[in-house]
Amino acid sequence: MKIYKVNNKKDYMPLLLLADEQENMIYKYIDNGLMFVLDDNGIKGEIVIYDVGNEILEIKNLAILPEFQKMGYGKALVDFICTKYKNSFKIVQVGTGDSPLTIPFYEKCGFKKSHIVRNFFIDNYDHPIIENGVKLIDMVYLQKKLN
Description:
Layout: E1 2-6, H1 13-19, H2 23-26, E2 34-39, E3 43-53, E4 56-64, H3 73-84, E5 91-97, H4 102-108, E6 112-117, H5 120-124, E7 130-131, E8 134-135, E9 139-145
Parallel strand pairs: 4-5
Antiparallel strand pairs: 1-2, 2-3, 3-4, 5-9, 6-9, 7-8
């Protein structure tokens, strides 16, 4: 298994759209973010990170191909970022929908709920975002301290 940085981020749009289904939202962060892919006999997933200031690194996009989910690839990408940037940032954070799929995943990775941005998905997406049968409304931020 290898994890490495890629510069041709837009070539991975189908994978990016698994985690953020509205392309114009991806364009808000893709040019300024860093993208890493996980290759294990073929690309299995990706993570995009962004320096939001105040020594906080934000995960903007994390996606694993559906057939490879629940195999540890997502956690491997999160652990890679936390290890790689532990001396450069104090906190890694992620904003996600209040979903029974994503919140428990990040909590298992050591993240704790931080704050909520009310109506984020209603205000920023042109259609309802449904995840695992749940309509996403608020953005839930979770943070993990690195040092």
